[in-house]
Amino acid sequence: MRTIIRFIALLAIMTFALAAQQKSDYAIVQRFQTMTKSIAKNIDQAKTVQECAEANTTINEVEKEFYDNKELINKANYPDGYDKTIEQLHGKLLIRQTDLGVIESQIVHISELEVKIRELSDQITILTNQNDTLMAQVQQLSQNVRKLSGDLFNSTTPIDSLHNMVVKLRQGLQERDALIFALTDSLFMQYDKNVGDMKDIEKQGLLGKIDRHGIIGNVKRSILDNIAFLETTQLKGSDLVTLVRQQKRFQSQWIGLAPNLTSLYLNGKSKKSEIGVVDSMLAIWGDKVDGAMWRSLNTLFKEKGFVVKEFKNGDEFVANFIVFLDEQIQNVNKETNDTRYEFFTKFYESLWQSDLYATWLPALTELRKISDTQKKDLEIKYERWHSSIMPGATWLTYILIVLGVLLVAIVGIWVFRMRPKTTQEE
Question: Are 274 and 253 in contact (CB under 8 A)?
């Protein structure tokens, strides 16, 4: 009895597996037929070299995708199986290219760009999914840190796993931003002309590709993700400066792209309004990252123990910092030279050398938050404070003096030892 039951069970499994395989084979054949019919239709409707190139790329992708199933398709679609269908599509495309007067070299060049476009689009999708997962993990871990320490994550938090996630997420966001604009550049390069010089049908084709690859949606998504990253991590110092640079770079690239999109969306009010939406979102991102930067710098002074009036922009930073330096130069608290020297040394070692001069001042100048002249004014004021503690001398002067004294002493000892011995000594 058990043997019969086992046999029936085995027969059921085999029947199910066979049915599943048949269903899978049918699905493969159906997909091949659907895709090739769609390609044939697109070839018939092609009116530009770009549409011909896109059809050529799609044919190559279908040929590659179904190559391992060619025998199955040949049997299912006899006599027009895999080989003959692919051959017919290439022939149909060649006839269409001839009708349109398309040169083969154009097809090759634009097809290569089309392959690149599809690869970039796939990479953006993959990175978006990876970044979403990382963002959720970082937000969860950051909440845990806040519960334990009362503060959100920053670059000094001694949690390796969280730190590594934040670094990876930041790199992922930056890479995705770069891919979006690389994809956009490749789309425009397929047409190899200014938007104003395009024919209406070319504009429509480019618009279709921009919408199909979700350029505007990806740009908006990147801005939102970067804002979420900024607010979740609350990075400080050089890490935050990196985020400011990223925002400025993104904004610059968008400024270069927006006029072309505006020209393409000239007759579409709803789509044209999307340009304004992105502009507003970029402005919000810029305000948030700038605000975080100034808060970080204000906090830096406080954490190091130096009282500088709070500032919210570059001009306030320079003005308030100069007030602090002037107070030290004028010695408004009438402190002794030893106290002033000790305070200056603390400022030099814990703030000026390690943070302000090395990172913040160059970054603020690069980002055009302060001018080169303002940066120079701060450096001059700093040197005056130094000189007010050590009048008429610099660090280099004192180092040279010490070295000179040591040199004289060494020479004196050498001369003393090398002098001729007197008769009495003999």
Answer: no
- 281 contacts 216 by C-beta, under 8 angstroms: no
Domain boundaries, the chain: 2-100, 111-300, 311-392, 397-426
For residues 308 and 64, what is the distance between their CA atoms, to the nearest angstrom? 66
Beta-carbon contacts of 149 under 8 Å, excluding residues fewer than 6 positions away, are: 157
Q: Residue 421 gets which letter from DSSP?
A: P
Task: Report the C-alpha gap between 58 and 61 in whole angstroms.
Answer: 5
Structure pTM?
0.75
CA distance 275 to 259: 9
Distance from C-alpha of 271 to C-alpha of 280, rounded to nearest angstrom: 15
The one-letter amino acid at 29: V
The most distant pair of C-alpha atoms in the chain lies apart, rounded to whole Å, by 129
* CA–CA separation, 97 and 43 (whole Å): 9
Amino acid occupying residue 183: L
Rounded Cα distance, 355 and 349, in Å: 9
Q: Which CATH class is domain 2-100?
A: mainly alpha
Pick the closest to residue 85 from 49, 38, 24, 22 (CA basis).
38
pLDDT tens, N- to C-terminus, the chain (426 residues): 566 555 455 554 555 444 444 558 888 988 998 999 999 999 999 888 889 999 999 999 999 999 899 888 888 876 778 889 999 999 999 999 888 888 888 888 999 999 999 999 999 999 999 999 999 998 888 777 666 655 555 545 446 778 888 899 999 999 999 999 999 999 999 988 888 888 889 988 999 999 999 999 999 999 999 999 998 887 888 888 999 999 999 999 999 999 999 888 876 666 778 899 999 999 999 999 999 999 999 999 999 999 999 999 999 999 999 999 999 999 888 888 889 999 999 999 999 999 999 999 999 999 999 999 999 999 999 999 999 886 544 445 556 556 766 776 786 676 667 666 544 444
